Amino acid sequence: MRVLVNAGPWLQVPPPGYGGIENVVATLVPCLRERGVSVVLAAAGTSTLEVDELITAFDEDQFTELQKPYNQVMGIAHAHQARVVAELRSRDDIDLVHDHLEVVGPGVLSAFGGPPVLHTLHWDLHKHPAFYGAFPPSIAVNGVSESQLARAPEALRAASLGAVYLATPLADRDLRVEQGEHLMVMGRICGLKGQHIAARICQKLGLPLVLAGPVCGRNTAAELDVVTQNPYHPLHSHPDVRYHLDQVSRYLDGDLVRWVGAVGGPARDHLYASARAALFPIQWDEPGGTAVVEALALGVPPVGLRRGCLPEIIDHGRTGFLADTEEELAEWVLRVDELDPEECRREARRRFAPSVMAERYLELYDQVIRR
Ligand code: UDP
């Protein structure tokens, strides 16, 4: 079987730091290839993942562009997808396209009508109601959690092939490092992820907190300064930049509560694995929760608000804690040492290992090709 996996043009695969979808693609592709699938990857030209062929429309990652207004960036996704379609037009040996490009992927591929397509919905399906409410029937879809699909428009939910949970290679690695004192939030700094709540709780309780993640595609304080110090910068008023400035930075005392920017590679794994707990004070219905799954795999108990996919991933009292309010969250944070890291690791190995995800996708590929 030969599959064209479309990761989109935004970040290299695997991503050097932040990158939920790119991490999932980087986890899936080696497993597919081990099982005899030939993979053509469509991604940013900087991608280093071992594949059979790499096709690209851009030599550089386009993630920083993604934050700009729609009328300044819509050409990027379309240029990438035009490259994918040109590839599909030029050959007849692709059995299936596994697409991960939001809206533009299925929109363009349904109009093209080439090989069968499985599109993975990584997003909050309340977005794009016009598109998701009239999703092209020729495109097969899957979600990344049951709760995400439960919120999808009726027709999309009915047409979907179900949910495939996200996986992490950390589930197979059994990384063990000395535990530190800090709690962590790993993720984009933005209102949806709720870092200010974690900061408020930790400041009140006197617990060290490390926030890791980019702000609006900016990976360091210096990069962010370029945006905040220039009132004419196109991202100056971006909601994520304002969120960091207005709601998070007031807690950053450089000691108890720290923002370390985006971290990647072994440094990220070490920082995350040494945390006492991973906090998820989410302010939205998190669709897939890669960072939650990673926390389990590292034996770092996740503690979060009971929303989105969190109740599906976290078994309250066994592999983490779930709270309904900020006050309750603070209470559970004080009890994280009651949770057994081994139980978290076991759960990740059983449910979120790469092979588990890959086997599920191979079943779906078969189903899509047969229909
Ligand atoms: N991440 C990272 N470095 C950071 C912040 C995040 O490597 O500084 C990774 C994180 O470990 C996870 C991904 O980026 O693999 C974020 O995925 P998630 O699904 O949690 O968030 P979203 O895709 O909603 O931004």
Write a structural description:
Helix content is 42%, strand content 13%. By secondary structure, the chain is α/β, with parallel strands linked by helices. A 6-stranded parallel beta sheet has the order 3-2-1-4-5-6, sandwiched between helices. The protein has a 6-stranded parallel beta sheet with strand order 9-8-7-10-11-12, with helices on both faces. Strand 4, helix 4 (104-112) and strand 5 form a beta-alpha-beta unit. Helix 1 packs across helix 17 (354-370). The relative contact order is 0.13. The structure holds uridine-5'-diphosphate. The site of uridine-5'-diphosphate (UDP) has 19 residues, from helix 1 and helix 13.
How many β-strand stretches?
A: 12
Unreliable spans: none
Helix fraction by DSSP (H/I, runs of at least 4): 40-55%
The CATH class assignment of the largest domain is: Alpha Beta
Write down the overall geometry. globular
In CATH, the architecture of the largest domain is 3-Layer(aba) Sandwich
Number of distinct helices: 17
Question: What's the quick description here?
Answer:
By secondary structure, the chain is an alpha/beta fold.
Topology:
Blueprint: E1 2-8, H1 20-34, E2 38-43, E3 53-55, H2 63-66, H3 70-90, E4 96-99, H4 104-112, E5 117-120, H5 129-132, E6 140-142, H6 146-150, H7 154-159, H8 170-173, E7 183-186, H9 195-205, E8 209-212, H10 221-228, H11 239-248, E9 257-259, H12 265-273, E10 277-280, H13 290-297, E11 302-305, H14 310-313, E12 321-323, H15 326-333, H16 341-351, H17 354-370
Parallel strand pairs: 1-2, 1-4, 2-3, 4-5, 5-6, 7-8, 7-10, 8-9, 10-11, 11-12
Bound molecules: uridine-5'-diphosphate.
